[in-house]
Amino acid sequence: MAAAEGCEEMSGNGELVESSAMEAPEVPAPPLPEMTEENGSAAVVPEAPVGPDPASFSMQPAAVDEEGELPADFERLWKAAHDNPQDFTSWTDLLQYCEQEGHVTSSRRALEAFLVRYPLCYGYWKKFADLERRVGLNDKAEEVCIQGLQAIPLSVDLWIHYINLLLGTLDMNLPESPKRIRSVLEDAVAAAGLDFHSDRLWDLYVEWEKEQGNMKNATAVLDRVLRVPTQLYNTHYDKFKEHLNNHEPKEVLSPEEYEELRELCRQSQKAERAEQSQEEEKERPPGEEEPATPEGTDTEELMQKIREQVLLRRDKVYQDNEGEVRKRWHFEDAIKRPYFHVKPLDRLQLRTWHSYLDWEITELNKDTKDPSQDPNQAITEESEVMAPPQEPSEDTIAAQDDHRVRILFERCLIACALYEEFWSRYIQYLEAQSVDEARAVYKRACEIHLAYKPNIHMHWATFEERHGDLTEARRVLEALEKKLPGLAVVRIRRAALERRAGQLDQSEALLREAVAESKEKPTLHAFYSIKLARLLLKLGRDPSSARSVLQEALEISPDNDKLHMNLLELEVSGDPWASASAVQECVTRALAAPLEPHTKILFSQRGLQFAEDYSNSIQSVLSVYEEHQKLLKELGGTKREAENGDEDPEKLSKTDDGSAVSAQVPPTMPHVPITTPPPPVMGADMSAQTGYGGYSSWYQQPQYGSYGYQNTWNYNQGYYPPS
């Protein structure tokens, strides 16, 4: 695990260097620079919303300094990073240049902008704090650490860096300074103490209490960590033993436990001595009395017995905790990259996180049935050694039951911050408990880490609509469309939202706006035109307006078969007596358009079917049929091939005279292509097509099943004359 020690720095490529100065990181060209973030993300405090508010990441205006102009290449690198904010290398190039120049203003400006976009890079929060401290702005350095911990409360390294900063800047002779350090240490173990790799944080807490001479407090901290499954769980028990053996029990144990064990051991000693004296009395010479032992004297033998009793009690806790560690060890060992990086994770790592979450949630269900077996309860309570256990309230129990699951989710969302599936899974877990907490995670995901992933934004909008907040749903979709302009799926979703809200006029306006703005993109223009025409026809009951929309679209895209087909369907769905001429006009227009031959045949067949179904004279049917036969001959096919499109060339055989004839197979129904799953919409990532609202570029497909023409036509029977 790439975890820096408390006073170490992290270079731009993730390598640890022993330096407190802001040295230039080595950022290689491809592959991308290794940017690590030690386990940390928004920790979950039961009383607070899940995760920080993204607004809290915004920096305060930088202090004005007297350094003069910015370095020569700063503006060029700054522009490159802002023109393409998703290019991680551009940012690291900018940060490297600023560090090399040693220019405070440019470094501050670059770090502020970078950390807004990549707040999980804890090493740069440390660099930023060190920068402010070197120029004498200790308060500003402290602010930077606090902002970083709001973004990644699980970062053990950043907590240690913050505590070391306070230890180096506070006057420890003041009575309030130790109180503040202890308060920060408590906040640290509350936020990150359940992390599997939090051992260094616990060790820092214990050693600091020892330095302050508070041996009982050190014992209490050790008691707490003995109940936490961590990577170095056994070393904590060894340190507890060492701590107990190096001091008198009275100095390290709480008064209650010490008096209890002291009395217990004394009674045990008395019983042993009584039994021993009876044996010695039999052998003692007559007249010799037993040597008296002064009452109230604590012998070394008594102290050793007390130590043995203390370890006997802790050994059960240690054994239980060791069992919890063993359960988690294979998951933790399989996680090879627990920090943030823009490079993709391999599938094995993703499966490991999913499996780990599955297991932890299963354990939660078991613990819920028997809360007394929860190994994590002590982390939020005083040590049992320091004070008698108190009955927690129902609210406290409910908050503690899922605490470890939330911590694991937050750890996962550091390594997998760029994967929508884990954010969605966390939201699904939280929504059953708190809509506000689920909303906070949506906000964090969409506004910071997945700003350019449309699918999760649309899930967020659906979430808000489902919970009755249409205003927020509209805001989410509008913001997404501004960030990703021209994405058809977003505009369609906005129109659908307004339609469901009963705002048909607004839905129509959004589609008309999209039609007007897409005239330079014929395919997209046709797509929006069809959507608008269907809205006007099906919901607006306005076939005239729908017809106008499709006709105008055909003027721009006369070769778009979907426009022709939708216009034909519009006319066919009307009054058959009144629309006969309009149907034939549609067919004629399609046959004159630059369409594929098989498409023209399909339109001709559709016109023939309409004539057969609704014409009031056999002459008109035969007239249309003759035109259809002429079209088949012009396009080079045979009537049977066109009408029974599933004829296989391999079924043809040769006669003696060499002419091709059909193999002796029974007549089959003509083949109509079955609609296949559509491809992604233009300009959208694949993830945007999987969920609700994933409208695809169906209008680019050559199949026609989606238009409802599943019935086939066979015109070789009945009264048609032979050809």
From TrEMBL:
<keyword id="KW-0539">Nucleus</keyword>
<dbReference type="GO" id="GO:0071004">
    <property type="term" value="C:U2-type prespliceosome"/>
</dbReference>
<feature type="region of interest" description="Disordered">
    <location>
        <begin position="1"/>
        <end position="59"/>
    </location>
</feature>
<dbReference type="InterPro" id="IPR059164">
    <property type="entry name" value="HAT_PRP39_C"/>
</dbReference>
<feature type="compositionally biased region" description="Basic and acidic residues">
    <location>
        <begin position="261"/>
        <end position="287"/>
    </location>
</feature>
<dbReference type="GO" id="GO:0030627">
    <property type="term" value="F:pre-mRNA 5'-splice site binding"/>
</dbReference>
<keyword id="KW-0507">mRNA processing</keyword>
<dbReference type="GO" id="GO:0000243">
    <property type="term" value="C:commitment complex"/>
</dbReference>
<dbReference type="InterPro" id="IPR011990">
    <property type="entry name" value="TPR-like_helical_dom_sf"/>
</dbReference>
<protein>
    <submittedName>
        <fullName>Pre-mRNA-processing factor 39-like</fullName>
    </submittedName>
</protein>
<dbReference type="Pfam" id="PF23241">
    <property type="entry name" value="HAT_PRP39_C"/>
</dbReference>
<dbReference type="InterPro" id="IPR003107">
    <property type="entry name" value="HAT"/>
</dbReference>
<feature type="compositionally biased region" description="Acidic residues">
    <location>
        <begin position="288"/>
        <end position="301"/>
    </location>
</feature>
<dbReference type="GO" id="GO:0000395">
    <property type="term" value="P:mRNA 5'-splice site recognition"/>
</dbReference>
<dbReference type="Pfam" id="PF23240">
    <property type="entry name" value="HAT_PRP39_N"/>
</dbReference>
<feature type="region of interest" description="Disordered">
    <location>
        <begin position="635"/>
        <end position="672"/>
    </location>
</feature>
<keyword id="KW-0508">mRNA splicing</keyword>
<feature type="region of interest" description="Disordered">
    <location>
        <begin position="246"/>
        <end position="302"/>
    </location>
</feature>
<keyword id="KW-0677">Repeat</keyword>
<dbReference type="GO" id="GO:0005685">
    <property type="term" value="C:U1 snRNP"/>
</dbReference>
